[in-house]
Amino acid sequence: TFSQKILGSTTVFSIDNNQNPVDWTVADVASYFTAAGFPEQALAFRTQEIDGKSLLLMQRNDVLTGLSIRLGPALKIYERHVKVLQQTHFQDDEAFC
Amino acid sequence: TFSQKILGSTTVFSIDNNQNPVDWTVADVASYFTAAGFPEQALAFRTQEIDGKSLLLMQRNDVLTGLSIRLGPALKIYERHVKVLQQTHFQDDEAFC
Amino acid sequence: TFSQKILGSTTVFSIDNNQNPVDWTVADVASYFTAAGFPEQALAFRTQEIDGKSLLLMQRNDVLTGLSIRLGPALKIYERHVKVLQQTHFQDDEAFC
Amino acid sequence: TFSQKILGSTTVFSIDNNQNPVDWTVADVASYFTAAGFPEQALAFRTQEIDGKSLLLMQRNDVLTGLSIRLGPALKIYERHVKVLQQTHFQDDEAFC
Amino acid sequence: TFSQKILGSTTVFSIDNNQNPVDWTVADVASYFTAAGFPEQALAFRTQEIDGKSLLLMQRNDVLTGLSIRLGPALKIYERHVKVLQQTHFQDDEAFC
């Protein structure tokens, strides 16, 4: 249920039937990070009850210290996924203006 | 005892007889967050003794790390409620000038 | 041994015989916060060995996270007391220039 | 397997066959810090699963508080190694433009 | 082995035979803070393995939260000693340019 989209050197996975992260449930967010290669960290997103709306509000420090996950994966999750999903989302928003 | 007011895409609840958050007691703050769909987090506001005056002084990081609540709900509580209540409050203040 | 001075909407207490907070001992600081209505938090100032000189060096985050006190009172202690005492103190300093 | 390069007053070690830190594995990062004189702290980088890509994303505060290592060595690891590796890496990148 | 130098209202102690803090060992740093009236906190500097080079890299927040010392003394240690030693050190550096 995930397709890949290449953005520069970063691969962002998206849920086929529900592309816009703003509509993702907590389970969708966890599935996303499992598919992206972070099954262990996906659990932490679930524990902290992070759905798509919350994901789009996360800042670097929230990912690094608010999830109680190891620093190495946290740095990649923020830079390659959270940040990129937010940039894509807010670009799409602007495209409607 | 709560009415809803639509502000853009955000619903802010207000206590009918006591609209101005600056006058809310600790119990009013807890009632507000229970009505807003965060009964568990409402308890944390009560534990930290946050009345309306303190609520209007809270910054993003205070909500995210000072209440010991889960990150997902914390992000929404700040963005959709604390921040919006503060903006509304300080706009109202300016309207009197 | 405390008198009150009204500053805008904020009441700042001052120790009669020793008005300048820079000269307050750890016990004076604790007495100040007890008189201001924060007897429990006054204890935390004492535990952290905060005298007048240290009090004048405290920033928002130091009050909120460095004293292990509840967030609601901490927000008011900073905004209504620590910040105001510092502004008054540094204004007085400028008056001498 | 390490050679030394002098950069101002700072010595940066590099892995001979794999000079670009972006390609370092978690084991390479640990070897680097062991060779640089921080064998104990190398273990913390390994525990936090920090490979070369994550290393290049680390900020001062991540090194000081995210690795649970002592403050003295942490300050030197950031200033003399992490920061310098990042500067060298991003300079090399620019050289290709 | 310490002499005193008056800088404005601040007294900075310096180790006679080894004035430049950049050359201080962990033991020298501890001796400095013991002589400056902070014997208990000197122990924390030693525990965190802070030598002169690390001392010159410390920021306000590192002193306040990274040493696990009480807030009152920490505020004074930073303002009257760490900050002043750094200013003196970097002024001396500039004098050579």
From TrEMBL, chains A, B, C, D, E:
Q: Which Pfam families match?
A: SAM_1
Query: Which cellular components does GO assign to this protein?
Result: nucleus
In terms of InterPro entries, this protein maps to: PcG_chromatin_remod_factors (IPR050548), SAM (IPR001660), SAM/pointed_sf (IPR013761)
Annotated coiled-coil segments of the chain: none
> Could you tell me which residue ranges the SAM domain spans?
24-72
Task: Please give a single GO biological process term from the UniProt record.
Answer: negative regulation of DNA-templated transcription
Q: Which molecular function term from Gene Ontology is one that the record holds?
A: chromatin binding
Q: What is this protein called?
A: SAM domain-containing protein
The species is: Sinocyclocheilus grahami (Dianchi golden-line fish)
Q: What is the lineage of its organism?
A: Eukaryota, Metazoa, Chordata, Craniata, Vertebrata
